Fold this sequence. Notes:
eight-stranded mixed sheet; globular
Amino acid sequence: MDHPRPALSVVIPAYREQARIGALLAHLARIPAPGGPSAGSVEILVVDGDPEQATLAALREGADTAGVKGLASAKGRARQMNAGAAAARGDVLLFLHADTRLPLDAFARIEHALAPETGDTGGGVICGGAFRLRIMPESGPPGPGLRFIAWAANLRSRLTRAPYGDQAIFLRRDCFAAVGGFADIPLMEDLELMTRLRRSGRRIRLLSACASTSARRWEAEGLLFCTARNVLLRALYHLGVGPQRLARFYT
């Protein structure tokens, strides 16, 4: 018996996320499917880039992973997301980092964002979009430093129309395929893809709701160092320094 084609595919690139994957899947299970609780309307694909496949092992051992598809891939977020997209069956692809959490009406918001608007003469259908960014510490609310970083990132996204990957980018499958998916680069794959979409004239919509990404990197490396390094890498990328060279400074 054929299963109904899902409306939405959630693609999760993972690398040694065995301690977090269960909590992420439990979080996704609480989000109502778009269009109501119809069977098969959302599929979840976890793409493990770890040669030891530790995340997939945790996935197999989990109690609440029925219906979740696990895939092995070569290491590299762009490669992993392309592999997930190739295996996905949904008409819409949502690329979700393993340390990011969505609002609990996220799937309905995506469906509404991509729905055609009556009388819209603004240049065709919406190709995709992303959420606003919130950076959340492991415990407690974000302090002023993290709030400022998120504010600046959201401002940059509005101005450039090129959101970050930890803003939970979503795209129509046909748009993603038309531009060739993510470039096989070790860094800046999110900005590179969204810049190509913008230059091709395809429209995206930035949602008002927030996706919350973990502050673990800022907490581990220090707020000033992590922020300065990220700003420098992005500036060098825009000046033409290749992602392969930049990746040496981002581990």
